[in-house]
Amino acid sequence: MALEQIAEVVQNGKILEAIEDEFNGVIVEVNEPMDPKLFHSKLKTSVSHWRQQGKKGVWIKLPIKLVSLVEPAVNEGFWYHHAEPTYIMLVYWIPKSGNTIPANATHRVSIGAFVMNQKREVLVVKEKIGKTLKGMWKFPTGTADEGEDVCDAAVREVKEETGIDTEFVEILSFKQSHKALFGKSEIFFVCILRPKSFDIQIQELEIEAAMWMPLEEYITQKYVQSNEFMKDITEKYKEKVDLDEVHTEFSIIKKKFTQNFLLSLRALVSSLK
Amino acid sequence: MALEQIAEVVQNGKILEAIEDEFNGVIVEVNEPMDPKLFHSKLKTSVSHWRQQGKKGVWIKLPIKLVSLVEPAVNEGFWYHHAEPTYIMLVYWIPKSGNTIPANATHRVSIGAFVMNQKREVLVVKEKIGKTLKGMWKFPTGTADEGEDVCDAAVREVKEETGIDTEFVEILSFKQSHKALFGKSEIFFVCILRPKSFDIQIQELEIEAAMWMPLEEYITQKYVQSNEFMKDITEKYKEKVDLDEVHTEFSIIKKKFTQNFLLSLRALVSSLK
């Protein structure tokens, strides 16, 4: 079918407006209200038209205000791909061969932060909510926002929870876990930050208490010693502190960068199994 | 309200069945068909009931076959939290204070793989689809599945694209990027793998060609030299190869683990800005 003909059909309103993607698929974005029955009928005609054209994936993005169009799309064979607070994305695969539709985001990225002052005390908090670590003295943790670098997330979370200003220094380690919140996977980065202020002001909604705790006291806590990953990273952190690698200037750390650049995940992975 | 009374209301069918979560919220999971109007009416009564109880977040999980219940929930003030092919999760926040509802997965995790044979040749492919790297000789890349470790994803992708069996050795580097597919963030891990077989068999759906290419030829390619990250990691890889660190035995690499464990993200991040 020539391009003019396609345009004509669209103009006559039989086919939904769509743009092509680089994988021979089409993307329909509906923004104006439409009668659900009319939408269903148009969608049926459109899919048949795209099938003739040899198209593969068909995407429909519907803002939440057009929720009434979700049911007709599902009844036409579409399924949910992903949803965000303001819209839902539905998808359909035309060919009979297995679909190559990319999955939505699969991981959450979280951070934990070692912050130490000149007295060899680390910044620790007690959380109010959740069950696992409630009441434990632990380093500040949090989740990276969509679009946020790991190092910025660590600085932000420490500031939010404790009021302490910090600078990102380096990543000490990371850990993978699966089947976490909503069944998703998670990568947890443990960061080293350097404090730029020392007066603690806690965020009262989520944090019960915060303090500077001597590193040796932190290490000997029962929950640190009984958790292989926590014990391992804490000892590695202490090793770095003892070597005075943490409080050196950035320029020096940057010079060390090439030597420290390589990270073997193998031992980490096997330590988790 | 006493527990018996709650049970009674639920038994009378006025309130939707719900389980409590550890953050003082409730989770409703509907699995049997229900008239959309009846569902709307019950939902209204239920939310009012949970408000009196001081509940916070309200979650509704609906399988795709119950798509007709999505619209009444949205009309009652619920919004989309996330969706997977088989279900949609809706959410509502009762208190007037700002909501602390956790975000869904924000990141995709992808991998690139350096695989070198005894002749100092690296495994490269040319992709059929996509635009960015089509026609370039590049190392195999791919996306980690939900629930899959980075090292397993690298081994799987190399096998799928080229037929080569490998063992994971270590992570050479990683890179963060944002606003990628569906607006999500991405962490790209560059892995070093050791080949266990050498006969290439390409996956014809996505791969146009694959070959073993001399490392020096790989490095001098224009696209490698013009991309700061590619150039940087390729040179670091070559450095390791020259030091004969890659083909040593696992036990030795594991011993080196403590020295190589630390990774500074700073230079990486600043090289990307």
TrEMBL record, chains A, B:
Transmembrane segments: none
SUPFAM superfamilies per UniProt: Nudix
Hydrolase keyword on record: yes
Positions of the Nudix hydrolase domain: 106-237
Entry-linked CDD domains: NUDIX_ASFGF2_Nudt6
Entry keyword Protein biosynthesis: no
A GO molecular-function annotation: NAD binding
Keywords: Hydrolase, Metal-binding
Pfam families cross-referenced by the UniProt entry: NUDIX (PF00293), Nudix_hydro (PF18290)
Entries under InterPro entries matching the protein: NUDIX_hydrolase-like_dom_sf (IPR015797), Nudix_hydrolase6-like (IPR003293), NUDIX_hydrolase_CS (IPR020084), NUDIX_hydrolase_dom (IPR000086), Pre-Nudix (IPR040618)
Family label: Belongs to the Nudix hydrolase family.
Protein name: Nudix hydrolase domain-containing protein
Organism of origin: Cannabis sativa
Taxonomic lineage from the root: Eukaryota, Viridiplantae, Streptophyta, Embryophyta, Tracheophyta
